[in-house]
Design a protein that fits this description.
By secondary structure, the chain is an alpha/beta fold. The protein folds into 2 domains: 2-159, Rossmann fold; 160-284, Hypothetical Protein Tm841, Chain: A,domain 3. The chain is 42% helix and 24% strand. It contains 11 helices and 13 strands. The protein has helices at 44-53, 65-77, 94-109, 111-114, 126-142, 147-157, 171-175, 181-189, 212-224, 242-255, 268-274, and strands spanning 2-8, 23-25, 28-31, 34-36, 59-61, 80-86, 117-121, 161-167, 192-199, 202-210, 235-238, 262-265, 279-284. The strands form 3 sheets. A 6-stranded mixed beta sheet has the order 10-9-8-13-11-12, sandwiched between helices. α2 crosses α3 (94-109), α5 (126-142) packs antiparallel against α6 (147-157) and α9 (212-224) packs across α10.
Length: 286
């Protein structure tokens, strides 16, 4: 059986990054009462423009149950194995809903049919999640492994993708209720950047530094302390200010042994909470 890769738009990858064989399911975003689908009727640039003038805080919705059911059953009807990788289960209900759909299909069609559905919790968001998707896509294209072997390999890599990024404007964390208004105002006035990490279904602050250059160097210094697996690629992500991603790219080449494979534009699912101007780097460890 052929393998159908299924992801959601939180990976911030399009069919141009992969190919048209990959099903990219929508994490929709609602802005002032209007629902948008990333990459369909909303570009990343349009999102950040709308975010600045929105009257209310944008919110995102998980992939609908019906979309998951219809997609999975379509693949089974086409005699395809399903390899579905979704954004971290702590950040969206999509993974858990997908598992419910698999159980429903098992009840309707039997255990043998359901056994062709393989669902992975990336335990991550945006470009580190995308890094896992790229690895799965590469293995499918090579056509040397079964779907179960690829599933095992991706699950092995899930805790090994590490990321550091800085939040440029704390106001969006404040709007989302993640920090106090006083903290946001004083942090911005003093030009503080909060450095965060993702992974294992968590988004946690690791450092607070003053100024853009120190934030970028904090990311680089963290990478240099880790036991990096250089056989796997690393990636840079940014929220709509590519110049900062380019600066991080240059510093990465200058001060580490890493060579970023691609710069990824971070879309609405994560951009809703961090706003424009943030930049980060992800890599795999041994």
């Amino acid at each position: 059986m052929s393998i159908r890769l299924i992801i959601d738009t939180c990976a911030d990858l399009t069919n141009d990054d992969l190919d048209k064989s990959v099903y990219i399911l929508p994490i929709t975003v609602t802005i002032d009462g209007k629902e948008y689908i990333p990459f369909t009727n909303l570009s990343n640039e349009e999102f950040y423009s709308l975010q600045k003038t929105a009257k209310s805080f944008p919110h995102t919705s998980q992939v609908p149950l019906k979309v998951l059911y219809d997609t999975f059953t379509k693949c089974l009807d086409n005699k395809e194995d399903v390899l579905a990788i979704f954004m971290g289960s702590a950040h969206s209900g999509t993974f858990n809903t997908a598992m419910m759909v698999k159980s429903t299909i098992e009840s309707e069609r039997g255990a043998e049919q359901a056994s062709h559905i393989h669902i992975i919790d990336s335990k991550n968001v945006t470009f580190p999640y995308g890094a896992l998707v790229f690895e799965a896509f590469k293995m499918i294209r090579e056509n040397k492994m079964t779907v179960s072997q690829i599933e095992d390999r991706i699950n092995y890599l899930v805790p090994r993708v590490h990321m550091r990024a800085f939040i440029d404007d704390l106001i969006y964390l404040k709007k989302g209720g993640r920090i106090s208004g006083v903290t946001a105002v004083f942090g911005n006035l003093l030009n503080f950047k909060v450095v965060i990490k993702t992974g294992e279904n968590k988004i946690e602050p690791t450092d607070k530094v003053r100024g853009l250059q120190k934030a970028l160097l904090c990311i680089i210094e963290t990478a240099n302390k880790e036991d990096i697996d250089y056989s796997l690629p690393c990636y840079i992500g940014h929220t709509n200010i590519p110049e900062r991603a380019e600066k991080l790219y240059e510093l990465t080449l200058e001060k580490t042994n890493l060579k970023p494979k691609q710069v990824i534009s971070i879309g609405p699912t994560v951009g809703t909470h961090v706003g424009e101007g943030s930049t980060g780097l992800c890599w795999f460890v041994k």
